[in-house]
Amino acid sequence: MSAPDSTEQPLLVVIDPVARRVDGESVRIARDVLCGGAVAKICFPEGPQDVERALARRGRRRPVVIGDDRALLRVVHLLHQRRDLPEVPVSLVPVGALPAVSLARALGVPLGTVAASRAVLDGAERRLDALVDDAGGVVLGGLWIPGPGGLNRTPEATAAAEPNGSPETGIADVADVTEVTASEGGVGDHQSWWSPAARTARSALTLLTGPAARHQLPSCTRLRVEADGVLLVDLDEPVARVALCAVDGQAEVTVHTHSAELPSVARATRVSISGPSFHYRADNVLTGPVRTRTWSVREGAWRLVLPRG
Q: Does the keyword field hold Transferase (predicted)?
């Protein structure tokens, strides 16, 4: 459901340092379009602390992120920590190539600089669900847990998993999302960015995992998965993959095992996963190892400005 427009509010434009380094020309174009259409304060943060200070002093300005998925996630997490996330509309102008902006694409944000900037000025807010974990994390698109053979960790992915890793580390080791088509539940190039196929987090999870991740299941791992206290799989049954996303106000968990031809799917408000140390990818960011984690769905947890229609 659409939220009231906020296009008349002044803007706080947060320009990620990685975006300035990767594609300075796109950053310049986005800044010119935004400043030409609204009263905007430009912020050039050098690190997360600068972003946090800018958000704390934003006043009535609504945040606009110029950068990749990581820059968006950083702002969302900071707003969540400040308990401002449900009431503050967020906008994004993606800068970077796939897969660094695959979450933006999955959420329905145009990847073109001018189109995304115009959407910031002329778009409409939409309330979207999210998953919040017991460690304070927020998942916008979806998460999945591969077995030990499914991580293929690169140095970049390892840095992304470290709690004190560089905020400028890009997303690595992600399936090619450009191959996803509308028939697979994704968004084809011929479709509008806010087409029906792109409206659910399930579609976002499909885009983020990509065809290779869906069709080449990794090695087995042992996990205990519970949905609202109901046991879906226990440690004695090897798991190939677990996927989780927020759909229509509920958490949808999909469990692939090698003993069953089809995955089991359940809906719940709270999903707990535990077992030997495991890693998981949330919005394409590698996290872990952890021994247990619980996610709860938050309906209408955040507001994203997207193109109209």
A: yes
Are residues 92 and 149 part of one domain? Answer: no
**Residue 288: exposed, middle, or buried by beta-carbon count in 10 A (0-12, 13-18, 19+)?**
middle
- Compute the C-alpha angle 225/267/198, nearest 5°: 115
Q: What is the pTM (predicted TM-score) of this model?
A: 0.79
Domains in the chain, number: 2
Q: Are residues 104 and 147 in the same domain?
A: no
Question: Residue 99 belongs to a domain with what CATH number?
Answer: 3.40.50.10330
Q: How far is CA 226 from the centre of its chain?
A: 23
The residue segments making up the domain with residue 85 are 11-129
How far apart are the C-alpha atoms of 109 and 228, rounded to whole Å? 32
Write the pLDDT tens digit of every residue in 15-66.
999 999 999 999 999 999 999 999 999 999 999 999 999 999 999 999 999 9
